[in-house]
Design goal:
Length: 368
Amino acid sequence: MAHAPILWYTAFMRKYFSLNLKDSLITISAIAVAFVICAALRLFNEADISISLIFVLIVLIVSRLTEGYFYGIFASVAAVFGVNYVFTYPYFAFNFTISGYPITFLSMFIVSVITSALTTQVKQQEKLRLESEKEKLYANFLRAISHDLRTPLTSIVGSASVILENERSFTEEQRHSMLKEILSDATWLIRMVENLLSVTRMRGEATIRKTQELAEELIGETSQKFKKRYPDTVLHVSIPAEPLFIPMDILLIEQVLINLLENAVIHGGNMTSIELSAAVSGRYAVFSVDNDGDSIDPEVIEHILETDYFITARRTKSDSKRNMGIGLSLCTSIVNAHGGSFSVETGGRGGACFRFSLPMEEGLADVS
């Protein structure tokens, strides 16, 4: 217990007064800019009031853009002493007898503390909001698949048991049909487990870990995995002639593309082919999965990315439509976590086109 105050003090200092290179550069740059602006203004106007206001503004900006309290307080101290030394008579000498000096120092100090406190609170609330959204996604996903996972497992166990117990009673064609159903259910289970792993991967990370990846390699790897599962499906691939590098978590984005391709096979009625493409649009890389099957009902398109909509829909529709909404909701969450956007529309070939964009620069968020 004797060490409790020391531990609390250490944690407090680490949380609110820790140093990092980015915030240090912001603070130094802001103060330097303020001195340059004030020096330029001093050539035209010798009044000190405008100079003080500029430094108050700089303290406010530094406190807003940096983490914790240290940099705002440092900026306020540097501003007060800097104005006193450089811009107050006698120039380039300290004069602490100036009228109103304590009030100026106190005002800047209070501005930095209040702004830093508000900024820290806003950032903490945003972090809690993001964590809440991740937890909601995780809970919705588990709730949505809890029943669906039991159904194919029961079917697999039941079919396998029937075949083993009554092997001689079935014809070769009947056994082949039952084994085909077992394979279909097992394949679907693999897909659901992969989606579950993707959600767990997102839940375990505070932010998506991105690395520069080549779009051609992503498309190639996705196509190979898809063709192994659906060798009879015609897949056309289109990629830019020039190398296209995109910051992403390649495992998550690959899962998005596989989900979209499999949704096209499972739900694209009367489909004969799928087109998978990557292109550049401004500062974004745009991926599209377009099929020539049946078009999606416009009323469904409005809600197709909403998890809750498909949780309800599966209770009233046939089991052949299972997992459509889960996969698309997961795809949307992964793309949004990368700073991109996701859309669904009627395809140019009569079917459905699923399209998502990823920023090609770090820190660039898609606002379209």
